[in-house]
Amino acid sequence: MKEAFIKFENVNLTYDLYLDKTNNLKEYVINKLTNRRPVSKVMEKVAALKNINIEFRHGDRIGIIGRNGAGKSTMLKVISGIYKPSSGKLTVSGNIQPLIEIGAGFDPEFTGRENIYLNGYMLGFTKEQIRLKENEIIEFTELGEFIDVPVKYYSSGMAVRLAFTIATSIEPEILAFDEMLAAGDIEFIQKAKLRMDSLITKAKMLIIVSHDLGMIKSLCTKVLVFHQGQICFIGTPDEAIEFYVNRGYDK
Amino acid sequence: MQIVDGIITEFKDAWRFRYVINSFVSTKLKQRYRRSFLGYFWTILAPFSHYAIIGFVMSNISRSSMPNYFVYMFSGSVFFSVIAGVINGAPMYLIANEHFIKKIYLPKIIFVLNTVALEFVNFSLTAISLVLLGMITKLIHFSIAFLYLPIPILFGMLLLIGLGCVISIASVYFRDLIHILPAVMQAAFFLTPILYSIDMIPTKYHKFILMNPIYYLIECFRIPIVQGDFPPLPFTLALIGMSLFIFLFGMILLKKYDNKIAFRL
């Protein structure tokens, strides 16, 4: 088991937001030939994360809060490697499991069983590691013989059950998740909650993005408040929530 | 140097996720034949009937009767169809996988490798069956030159990985490429000596054919099968040179746009 460790050094993330909707060759060529520009500016640089400097250590329980579009989810995606920093340095050590959206890494044409493997492989696991988990996953989902039916024929509750179980069957060192799910029948939600709790307890590091302040308070030991792509407050859950609720970043 | 490092990292990463490709290819193959009565036999039957018709028509209307025309036309067409398959599918490699690209980390080369691998596995099944069929019917004779065949296949894969990268990235920015490419490939089919041989067209047009990388690819695959000979050295060198160039170009483009694609999809 590796030591879980994340370090951001002057990390920035900017991307190009295209303002014109020219996304086909035909219009592009016509515009070039007629020397016509549909809008005055073709694209705009958007700074999604600005100058992030922070270190997360082994045992940290981090909560990230902030308004919509503040950069919370972007931060999680950068940690997971989905986005790469435009500048600055990011060091991540430890196996990371991002739960950004339930069902990411699903192919609806594949059967439930094939999806268990596909998903596992996408998270970087080997066939043997997945085979050990396979039966436990199938049992937990209560899908029975539906496990060998393509996922596109599942009800949404069944799909969520399978996706949730796969995503939570791997015990990573760093667990990062965004707004958790609520689907499936009551019985499953309770089962899911227990499973989630045990996963959270076992994780060496936890990073949660949520609007649910109650959950943040109960799970985290350290909370970051994001505003306009910057970390504007770091503190204990109580301090951070108070800062956030009173809109401290406006003052 | 930074770009070389980038390419090496991409492939190291792809190796780490090799099981994704594995599972994609085997599942797609199973899916394709799952509910069909003839199963894997379709891999042979479908192209065979397609080219048998073309071959029958062409051998009857063309005046110069080439020896072994059927084998000539078949080996060229089968190899061309894998090229066209990859290129025509390429616009969707990244676009269709938007939900993966935005929500999970996977090296982007995986999406190109998935389909290239699938097409080549399919192609191998077809090619092996056709060669066996040719040998049973005595149209093809076993020759030591068959040992050369992995070379056009390997460099064909490199060329198609490069082209796949270029087309799939360009399609993210120009969504209508998917409608343009089939027409381009249709033209490429007739501009490449597949149904005819290069001697059948006027010398002044030869220079255009000699610039076409697909020509060398097909020629290097066809000569061992049809003539039982090794292709001339300049053909091999042209094949290797052009494939490597296009492969590297595709990889450089992929590294350059790696971080931009997720925001434009």
Question: Would you summarize the structure shown here?
Answer:
The complex is a heterodimer of chains A (251) and B (265). By secondary structure, chain A is α/β, with parallel strands linked by helices.
Description:
The complex is a heterodimer of chains A (251) and B (265). Chain A is of the alpha/beta class and 251 residues long. Chain A folds into two domains: 131 residues, Rossmann fold (3-Layer(aba) Sandwich), CATH 3.40.50; 105 residues, Rossmann fold (3-Layer(aba) Sandwich). Chain A contains eight helices and nine strands. The model of chain A has no long low-confidence stretch (mean pLDDT 83). Chain B has 265 residues and is an all-alpha fold. Chain B has one domain. Chain B is built from twelve helices and no strands. The longest helix of chain B is centred in the C-terminal third of the chain and has 32 residues. Chain B is globular, with a radius of gyration of 19 Å. The model of chain B has no long low-confidence stretch (mean pLDDT 86). At the A-B interface, strand 1, helix 1 and helix 3 of A face helix 2, helix 6 and helix 12 of B.
Say how many strands of chain B there are.
0
CATH domain topology of the largest domain in chain A: Rossmann fold
Q: What is the ordering of alpha helices and beta strands of chain A?
A: EHEEHEEHHHEHEHEEH
Largest interface: A-B, 32 and 29 residues
Helical amount among residues of chain B, as a percent range? over 70%
Q: What is the total tally of β strands of chain A?
A: 9
Shape of chain B: globular
Looking at the overall shape, the CATH architecture of the largest domain in chain A is: 3-Layer(aba) Sandwich
Query: What does the main sheet of chain B amount to?
Result: none
**Biggest pleated-sheet summary of chain A:** 6 strands, mixed
Strand order of the largest sheet of chain A: 5-6-7-3-8-9
Measured between the Cα atoms of the first and last residue of chain B, the distance is 29 Å
Q: Tell me what portion of residues of chain A adopts beta-strand conformation.
A: 25-35%
Instruction: For the record, give the distance between the C-alpha atoms at the N and C termini of chain A, rounded to a whole number.
Output: 44 Å
Average pLDDT score of chain B: 86
